[in-house]
Amino acid sequence: MVRPRNVNRAKTPKEIPDWEQEEFESRTDIKKAAQAVTDLGEKLAELSESKIKSLGLTDELLNAILLLKRMDKGPALKRQKAFIGKLLRKNEDLIVEIKEKFQEEEQKAQQQNAHFHRLEKWRDRLVEEGDDALNEFLESYPQADRTILRQAIRNAQKEAEQNKPPKSSRAIFKYLRGLEW
Description:
By secondary structure, the chain is an all-alpha fold. It folds into 2 domains: about 70 residues, Diphtheria Toxin Repressor, domain 2, CATH 1.10.60; about 70 residues, Diphtheria Toxin Repressor, domain 2. The chain contains 9 helices and no strands. α2 packs across α4, α2 packs across α5 and α6 packs across α9. It starts with 17 loop residues before the first helix and ends with a helix.
């Protein structure tokens, strides 16, 4: 049987997925949107197995991602990534949920980094300024132990004067981190 050439096989609107029905300027924009979903699948594969399972993915998508995690280099890797992108594009709600969870994780990481920066600043102030900074710190955080901090500060100052490794500074940071403010 001979197929006719140039047969227009346009999809009806019911067959076109929602993500393809969005208003795009060009075919390039459509490809970029599809690639963004495929990249989301790759980010999923970078997560730990327990986190992937906690996302509530469909069995087919979960198995595809776990298979991608086990794959090495080669052309099959690219096909698997494309397959995961295809599975994700079938379920727009899932894409939104996954993006929200990634944003939550990123926000938590930023908050933790900001918290650690505050602790580092306090540690540096305590070592540099001594008792003045310690008194100010204890006003803000009365649950801290003055004697432990004072001893660690003195040791850190001695280590800094003698150009030794900052063992006591690390101990101060660890103590501050353990206060759980």
